[in-house]
DNA sequence: CGGGGAGATGTGACCGGTCACACGAGCGGT
DNA sequence: ACCGCTCGTGTGACCGGTCACATCTCCCCG
């Protein structure tokens, strides 16, 4: 009567070698004669042997794992990073874990950090697009190898590798695009940011200043559509508003609706631009002009940065995709 | 010179008890005197002790983990299930892993199954909304505790616990809603399905038959927006089409765009209904009438079903949310 | 007052791999 | 012919917990 799962010593017996030799084969040690290796490989196949990751992690000290810590798994940017990490991790033979930080509250952050401090979690990718994420990042003990996916520019005062998509130039491009269409200025609905002057915002502001256009006050919104909708309603009331740069595509959706409710057509009366280029953006009516952000590549880059001594990845900068939601302003009546 | 991370024997020494007692405290054994427990707890706190999950898994045989196998992490339904599993798993103190199956190809499926066969992956939730997922489900060895999140009705010929959202009635409701508005019939753009007659489709068909309305041919589409757009274009050409039930909200987005391109207004000329109720649906212009699907609850239910002897969860059936994309047909000229 | 049982605690082996080191064979250089 | 080196392989201890079992104490009851 045999044990359910065969283990390394069973394989060794079947192959007529020692368990250590089997271990060497598992770990691709160069010091195994090719025909010995083949015998062991055959035995593994015959016994349907599967190495036990927990035992390996325990014995070797390394975990062979990567864990994503994030405040959210469904929002476009967050989900994209997760997808990228999974993809890159899987290709490297790593186990991929996810851990959500419920909120920026002290207890939640501490729990997440404790969770991820376990050696079997392996290296950590923190999605620091918000306070919960950056809180975790700051509370992370030095011993845990960590990289952060952050907003453009990184987080001040955090001594960790940080990878980000720099959409500053694209934000400026978007602003110039609108100005070029004849808009006197461009308004901005901002999503939450961890830094004083986000890349989107500073690109926008600088483009405006360079063009000598008035810089309107930023309208803040949250991650939720309801707050974006309120922001949009506020702007819709002002007839001087003819162009709006929205913090992301979701924001743009809600702003667009608010404009519609106020009887203002897009792009006839008001032009709008989003950020992210969600898959649906091209199928909007009108199709949304937006900035394409490759969050999946960002996630992949985080994993690359985690594996020892890899060259820093160069991420393509986000770029403006012009579609139908931007047009020249209606001529002044 | 001390070891970096304290272990159970260090705590035992600090507390003046045996390591087994510390282990008992860790596992909430009832047979520890309260004051002894407190002493141990204090020592743990003092030493900043963190148990090693890999060692626990190895020693005890159970993994304390749950792994989600899925073909996708970003599509609304898939991401929702993942979120639900993570949430429920975290609350149970489980480690949550993700593993993407790239495709339904034999090799990809086998790799995913091998990955998840490792005891340290723990119990498995397979998202079987597509062929890749159902392929994994069928290839899964009996020894691995597995539940599947599937389409309504479950997968024929698979002897595994299956949990699903039953949107059949909601599909019928949606169809009756459109019929009630005065449409002569309702067309259907279907997303891929693993079963002959999906719940959406059969609810729709039956409502049509009961009402004595003609049952038009189903227009198939893929998960991608481009194929949904093509499906929409085909329907837009036919002036008899005045109401469309779309397989999901993304499909509805692309269909709506196709209608618009053909010069047909929504809901003026054509009414459309989606499935899912993505967060943005309420902010569409016009706001989308759709069926709310709680995928997060589905994910949670999968975890509940996995923990021993829990009562089967009762999931609220999806329900129709009427908004602005449905209206009476234009009176015949 | 002694026996029995339950509760609290300690000891050794074990989970399934890995690591460090020992060992023997084959080879080249002097 | 001897030494030393590298290569391939095997042995014992170990990773950090858990399990099974032994032990000891205390209390209740006949």
List strands and helices in order, with pairings.
The structure is a homodimer of 333-residue chains.
Chain A lengths: L7 H8 L3 H8 L7 H14 L5 H8 L4 E6 L5 H16 L3 E6 L5 H12 L5 E6 L2 H9 L6 E5 L11 E3 L3 H13 L6 E4 L8 H12 L8 E2 L4 H13 L5 E4 L2 H13 L9 E6 L12 E4 L2 H12 L12 E3 L12
Parallel strand pairs in A: 1-2, 1-3, 3-4, 4-5, 6-7, 6-8, 8-9, 9-10
Antiparallel strand pairs in A: 10-11
Helix pairs in contact in A: 1-2, 1-3, 5-12, 6-7, 8-9, 10-11
The structure holds a DNA duplex (30 and 30 nucleotides).
Describe this protein's structure.
By secondary structure, the first copy, chain A, is α/β, with parallel strands linked by helices. Chain A is 41% helix and 15% strand. Chain A has helices spanning 8-15, 19-26, 34-47, 53-60, 76-91, 106-117, 131-139, 168-180, 199-210, 225-237, 249-261, 295-306; strands at 65-70, 95-100, 123-128, 146-150, 162-164, 187-190, 219-220, 243-246, 271-276, 289-292, 319-321. In chain A, the strands form two sheets. In chain A, strands 7-6-8-9-10-11 form a six-stranded mixed sheet, sandwiched between helices. The first copy, chain A, has a five-stranded parallel sheet with strand order 2-1-3-4-5, with helices on both faces. In chain A, helix 1 crosses helix 2 (19-26), helix 1 (8-15) packs across helix 3 (34-47) and helix 5 crosses helix 12. The first copy, chain A, starts with 7 loop residues before the first helix and ends in a 12-residue tail after the last strand. The relative contact order of chain A is 0.11. The model of chain A has no long low-confidence stretch (mean pLDDT 94). At the A-B interface, helix 4, helix 5, strand 2 and helix 11 of A face helix 4, helix 5, strand 2 and helix 11 of B.
